[in-house]
Each structure stands twice: as C-alpha cells, then as structure tokens.
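Lab notebook: predicted structure, single chain.

Context: the supervisor wants predicted structures on file for every construct in the current expression panel, including those that have not yet been purified. This is the next one on the list. No modifications to the sequence; it matches the entry in the shared construct table.
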Amino acid sequence: MKNVTISLEEELARWARVKAARENTSVSRLLSEVLREEMARDLGYEMAMKQYLSRKPKRLRKSGKLPRREELHDRRGLR
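Prediction complete. Output recorded below exactly as produced.
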C-alpha cells in the first residue's frame, strides 16, 4: 500500500471525518474506496467501448430502403 498526502478544504475534511466515523472506518479507507469505485467505472466503460468498437459495422440500409423505427430500436439486434 502506498501513502499519499492530500490537502482538503476544512469543510470537506470535516465532512469526510464525520462520514468515515458513521461508516466505522478511517478517512483514508473511505477515500480509497471512493477512488477504487471510480477506477472500476472507468475501466468498465473502457472495456465496454472496446467491445462495442470491436464489432463489425451493421448495415442499416437493406436494398435501398431506410430501416423502420422499430428495427432501429430493436435491442436484440444490437447484441
């Protein structure tokens, strides 16, 4: 584990101490969990984007006609 020093505004530091106390944890652990959740969201988004972009493009026009609204919004067709 790596130690990091941060600077917080007094009001924010007070709020963080109270929140940590309510959750029976330390400010350090509270911030670690918040950052871990943010990292997981970022990584999840990146993985989803890579998966989406790795698919072959889907042709929208069939024999010169534009698809109907129902066809465009068919979720099963996107999976």
